[in-house]
Write a structure and sequence with these properties.
The protein is an alpha/beta fold. The protein has 2 domains: 145 residues, 2-Layer Sandwich (Nucleotidyltransferase, domain 5); 188 residues, Nucleotidyltransferase, domain 5 (2-Layer Sandwich), CATH 3.30.420.40. It is 39% helix and 19% strand. The chain is built from 15 helices and 14 strands. It has an 8-stranded mixed β-sheet with strand order 5-4-3-2-1-6-8-7, with helices on both faces. Strands 11-10-9-12-14-13 form a 6-stranded mixed β-sheet, sandwiched between helices. Strand 2 and strand 3 form a beta hairpin. The longest helix has 25 residues. The model has no long low-confidence stretch (mean pLDDT 95).
Length: 396
C-alpha cells in the first residue's frame, strides 16, 4: 500500500509518500509561498533535488504540482497516480468530537470546521489541502489525523480551567493539547525500547522546538500536557509567550489600546524567546548571542530551561512512577547543552545524565547513566509515519 501524507499550512505544504510494505519513505517534498510571489516546490529523493518554480495561486494548484512531481518521468517515484491508495492529512484541532483519526466524511468535515474557531490559522489551511486531494484524486480515500486526539484521554482534573463551568459546557473551552501525533509516536517507540507494553508505560515526553510541549503519559495515554485551548499555553517558545498572568493581556489592551486580534498576534508571533531576547526565535542564534555576552539572550534561554524543569518535575509527581524522560523535536533531539541544563538539579531525584552518552544529535539513544533511577532517552520523532500508519489502519 502506498500512502501520501500531506501537512498543509496557510502558505505551505509538506508531503511524504510511503510504501507501507516496509514503511519506506519513497520521496518527500515542500511547497512554499502558495498564493505568494515566488512559489516553489522542492522534492527530495535519495539526496537528489527536483525543483518546480511556478506560480501557485492556491492549494489545489500546489497539490497538482505535487502530483506532477511524483509521476515526473525523470524525477518521480511512481508511474501513475493510481498507485496512491490513500492520503493522510494532519489536522491541528479536532475539538471534543474528534477523539481519534477518522476517514473523511461530511460529519468529520463539520467537526473540523467547528473546531476551526480554536485554530483559525491551521484548520482552514488543512481543509484546503483535503479539498484539493478530493478534487484531483476523487476515488482515493482521505484520512484525518488530529494533533489533539492523543490528549482526549486526559481526565477532567487536568483539562478543565479554573473559570465558570458554563464556559466549558456552552463553549467547550478547555485544555486540548497539541503535538499529539508526535507524543503518540514517542510513547509507542519508548515502550518498544523499554521492552514494555504500551499499556504499562509511563513517560514524560518533551517535544522541544520552536513550538514546544511536554506531555505526561500514564499507562500509554496522555494524562496531562502543557499546551491548552490553543498551542499558546505552556512553555516559553520561539515566538509564543507560554504561560502568563491573564491580567497581562487586559492591562496591555487597555494601556496601549490594542485590539483582541492585535493582542493575539503579539502573544503568538512577537513574544517568547524572540520577544525577551530581541535577537531571534531560533535557539541556536540565542546560544551564539549568549556566548558573546548578550544578557537578554541568556535570560531567554534560562526562562525556557527553567519552565521545562518545572513541568518535568511536576509531571513526575503527577505520574508517581516514571519509566523514562524522552527528549524529541528540533531542540530535544539536537541540543546537547539544553538537555544538560534542563536536567541539572534532577540528581536529587536519582536522575543522572551520562555526558558521553549525551554527546549526540538525533537518532535513538539512552543518555542516562546505568544507575539512574529514571531512564533519559533521545528519540527522533516521526509524525508523518504515525499519520501513514493510522491512514493504513483505517483504509484497511
Amino acid at each position: 500500500m502506498k500512502i501520501l501524507v500531506i501537512n498543509c499550512g496557510s502558505s505551505s505544504l509538506k508531503y511524504q509518500l510511503f510504501n507501507m510494505e516496509n514503511e519506506e519513505v519513497m520521496v518527500k517534498g515542500l511547497v512554499e509561498r502558495i498564493g505568494i510571489e515566488g512559489s516553489r516546490l522542492v522534492q527530495k529523493n535519495n539526496g537528489d533535488e527536483f525543483v518546480i518554480e511556478q506560480a501557485m495561486e492556491n492549494h489545489t494548484q500546489a497539490v497538482s504540482h505535487v502530483f506532477d512531481a511524483l509521476i515526473d518521468s525523470e524525477n518521480g517515484v511512481i508511474d501513475s497516480l493510481e498507485e496512491i491508495d490513500a492520503v493522510g492529512h494532519r489536522f491541528v484541532h479536532g475539538g471534543e468530537k474528534m477523539t481519534k483519526s477518522a476517514l473523511i466524511t461530511d460529519e468529520v468535515k463539520d467537526a473540523i470546521n467547528e473546531a476551526a474557531k480554536f485554530a483559525p490559522l491551521h484548520n482552514p489551511a488543512n481543509l484546503m489541502g483535503l479539498k484539493a486531494c478530493e478534487e484531483l484524486l476523487p476515488n482515493v480515500p482521505n484520512v484525518a489525523v488530529f494533533d489533539t486526539a492523543f490528549h482526549q484521554t486526559m481526565p477532567a482534573k487536568t483539562y478543565l480551567y479554573g473559570i465558570e463551568y458554563k464556559y466549558y459546557e456552552e463553549d467547550a473551552i478547555r485544555k486540548y493539547g497539541f503535538h499529539g501525533t508526535s507524543h503518540n509516536y514517542i510513547t509507542n517507540r519508548a515502550a518498544d525500547l523499554l521492552e514494555k507494553s504500551v499499556e504499562d508505560t509511563n513517560i514524560i515526553s518533551a517535544h522541544l522546538g520552536n513550538g514546544s510541549s511536554i506531555t505526561a503519559v500514564k499507562n500509554g495515554k496522555s494524562f496531562d500536557t502543557t499546551m491548552g485551548l490553543t498551542p499558546l499555553e505552556g512553555l516559553v517558545m520561539g515566538t509564543r509567550s507560554g504561560d502568563l498572568d491573564p491580567a497581562v493581556v487586559t492591562y496591555i489592551e487597555e494601556k496601549d489600546g490594542v485590539s483582541a486580534d492585535e493582542m493575539n498576534n503579539i502573544l503568538n508571533k512577537k513574544s517568547g524567546v524572540l520577544g525577551v531576547s530581541g535577537v531571534s526565535s531560533d535557539f541556536r542564534d540565542l546560544e551564539d548571542a549568549a556566548k558573546n555576552g548578550n544578557e537578554r539572550a541568556q535570560v531567554a534561554l534560562d526562562m525556557f530551561t527553567t519552565r521545562t524543569k518545572r513541568y518535568i518535575a511536576g509531571y513526575m509527581a503527577e505520574l508517581e512512577n516514571v519509566d523514562a524522560i524522552v527528549f524529541t523535536g528540533g531542540i530535544g533531539e539536537n541540543s546537547i547543552e539544553m538537555r544538560e541544563d534542563i536536567l541539572k538539579g534532577f540528581e536529587q531525584f536519582g536522575i543522572k545524565i551520562d555526558p558521553e552518552a549525551n554527546n549526540i544529535r538525533g537518532g535513538e539513544h539512552v543518555i542516562s547513566t546505568a544507575d539512574s533511577k529514571v531512564k533519559v532517552m533521545v528519540i527522533a520523532t516521526n509524525e508523518e509515519l504515525m499519520i501513514a500508519r493510522d491512514t493504513q489502519d483505517l483504509v484497511k
